[in-house]
Amino acid sequence: MSNPDTLIVTSPPLRRFPELLGEPAATQVLARLETELDWQQPRLRLYGREHPTPRRQVWMGDSDADYRYSGRQFSPEPWHPAVASIREAVIARLAASGISADFNSVLLNRYADGEERMGWHSDDEAELGPDPLIAALSLGAERPLRFRWKDRSREAFNVWLPHDSLLLMGPGVQRQLQHALLPRRRLGLRISLTFRQVHPLP
Ligand SMILES: O=C(O)CCC(=O)C(=O)O
Ligand SMILES: [Fe+2]
């Protein structure tokens, strides 16, 4: 079988699929997202002080998929056609593995270099429901996503995310683990697209 996926953790399910889009499509779409999206750098409040987010991001999705992230409310941008077709490719790849998923929104993260990063968190906002399924496509520089268990007696681990790989965080991952994209030296541009299903709160 070509493109076998790697089961990193069985329970809760954490799985990496190589080559979602193939070349040259993956490299072309990276350049397109880099230039065509309106990348934002919101300021974050941390320990009572404001800091620029150490990366840029775009929140995209269906118009009713309002979302809170790091204490901020985001209204999604409309689907960019390239992102809409990536969403279809993600859903199709998961379906081919017997996983039924739908996504009404995506957070795109742009890390210009190895200094840019994302701190420890779980994607456990109420809008995502109790057991979200999140699928993350990585484009550009290969970096590790670091995972640690909320039960700190278990060992933390890295998941390396090569260009064009898809990481699936299944039910329970956000409840049991946190993840972070830690700074690393000498790395170039990376863009990740983390697809989610948001259930707007009443
Ligand atoms: O850039 C990554 O791979 C991680 C992104 C992430 O954790 C998120 O969007 O919640
Ligand atoms: Fe996350």
UniProtKB/TrEMBL annotation:
It holds the Pfam family 2OG-FeII_Oxy_2. Residues 102-199 form the Fe2OG dioxygenase domain. GO terms for molecular function: dioxygenase activity. It comes from the Bacteria. The keyword Oxidoreductase applies. Keywords: Dioxygenase, Oxidoreductase. This is Alpha-ketoglutarate-dependent dioxygenase AlkB.
